[in-house]
Amino acid sequence: MRFKKRIENTKRGYRILGKYCPGLISSKVLKSAAETLAPFVTIWFSARIINELSGERDITRLTIYVILTIGINFLLSMIKNALEKKVNDKESGMWNYFSKIFADKQMTMNFVDLENPDVQKKKQKAEENLFMFGNGLGQLVWDTAGLVSVFIGIIASVILTAPLFLSKTGEAVMDSPLWIGLLILILFLAGLVTIKLRSKEDGLFQKWTDSNVWFNRAFMFYGHELYSNMARSKDVRIYRQDRIAEREMRKLQERNDDNDKYIRKMSSCQGIHILFRGTVACLCYLFVVAKAGLGAFAVGSIVQYVGALIKLVESFGDLSEVISENKIYTEHLEKLYEYLDLPNKKKEGTLHIKNNNSDSCITENPGCEIEFRNVSFKYPATDVYVLKNINTKLNIRKKQAFVGANGAGKTTFVKLLCGLYEPTEGQILLNGRDIREYDYEEYLKFFSFVFQDFKLLAFPLGQNIAADISYDKAKAEDCLDKASFTDRLKTMHDGLETYLYKDVSEKGVQISGGEAQKIALARALYKDSPIIVLDEPTAALDPVAEEEIYRNFDNIVKDKTAVYISHRLSSCQFCDEITVFDKGEIIQKGKHTDLLKDTLGKYVQLWNAQAKYYQNA
């Protein structure tokens, strides 16, 4: 990667950290500056104190030196300690903010791209790099302190070391300017050795991390996820899948032991690096002592020059390491940017709906309609159409059912309706205009959805229903009542403030699949949109609860437009119109009684397939 590109990637990384972890980098910079300056303060004042003790021993000057040494170090220590808690707090929480980076990206992407395997692979690779090993943004955070320390260390070391070469011994050899050239050569060699060893170490680390990405994923599954996930717990116990997991864990451990060779080789590189630095430090000490022995400066200055010279060599070595580290994390940042830079293909319309009120558009405009016109859809990178040439209209203020076998295209139809997918061909029109022309947030106000795979969050019940922190208590309770959840609500210790599940609250309650479905239905009712779309809303309910929902359905939806998707055809009898899907096409449409008259039609076939079990009983 070109150096200019590395600088760009680093700057972009700092911009991302500034947005998602504000204050973290600035706090780390100040803390590192205070930490780095402290040893140089001690070195300089120690030299002054020793020179004074070996010379005039002026009590006043000694007192001032001691007070300044203690005072400045105390001040720097206070600054460091004050910032340390702030840095630790922010650094411990940065992983949550890193998750937000991926969440924000997903919210801006076209929904269909989220299901694209190539997109998912890039996301997974970027997440594994970041969260398993801290590669990329994590390294940038951790290396910021080193970057600050290096530059302050070089500047301070040069200032404190310069008098060493200006001091004269009277000996031509020792006073030769060639020593400066030799120092520069040593600094160059220190940097070169550091780069070489660091490059080799990083290559080994990369091999180790590459082999461990899969290991960690498999280890987490066999060693943790398989047992802790309650959705799998019954199968694990009944079919003794723990024995399979134990066998796989042994294989994983054998592979992990084999990968330890990379760790051993990395340790060897670190050992050679330490040995080299120690050798350079000894040479620096001998040179300074030799000049002091020839009378170039007082004995106390030995402390200053040896300390500063060693720091200078170390700082240049660390500079090489910082540059080497920068090469590594900018390459990992590049992988993160590859995902973040995926195009957000979603079209954001600007057309406003009448009166900026979706309900008034329907209730006050008799001509308001939603139409699918020649709509076809296929997923990216496939040639198979999930929906083909769909032409239909939503009957406003009517109850409309969509039925068909699994894979017929019913759920895809709903996702197109709400704008999660865009048609491959054709248009979806609202009042004669393509829905992509409308402001998406306004368009969504038309709909309340209950999907098959709906999700409730580990928040209080009332917040789940309102999808907001604040909510109308009376309205929430009314919606729960319409969804037949009142009896269960009475058993909840904190009412609407009761947390669902135990993820974030010990007092959280576990709810059954049927109860969750009722809450999801109440959430859809609370939104009070003019169109309500229910995708298998009673699939997890027992027959009695299902019958109660259907019996009250007219009261639940009132004069709303209802789109109802179901496999249970008996539940569709109350609908004003039934649309039959088969293999991605609409093949029948009409009332229940009319469709039954077509004895060769798909609807009758589906009806009889379900009815025979009850008839035979």
Q: What key attributes describe this structure?
A:
single chain; 617 residues; alpha/beta; ABC transporter transmembrane region fold; Rossmann fold; four-stranded antiparallel sheet; 21 helices; 10% strand
Distance N to C terminus: 73 Å
Query: Residue-averaged pLDDT, rounded?
Result: 81
The best one-word shape is elongated
Q: What's the CATH architecture name of the domain at 3-340?
A: Up-down Bundle
Cα-atom radius of gyration: 36 Å
> What fraction, in percent, of the residue positions are helical?
55-70%
What proportion of the residues form beta strands (DSSP E)? 5-15%
SS field, number of helical segments: 21
Q: Which stretches are low in confidence, meaning pLDDT under 50 for 5 or more residues running?
A: 355-360, 362-367
What is the C-level CATH assignment of the domain at 3-340? Mainly Alpha
Q: Tell me the name of the CATH homologous superfamily of the domain at 3-340.
A: ABC transporter type 1, transmembrane domain
Structural class: alpha/beta
- For the biggest β-sheet, the strand order reads 6-7-8-3-9-10
CATH topology of the domain at 3-340: ABC transporter transmembrane region fold
In total, the number of strands is 10
Largest sheet: 6 strands, mixed
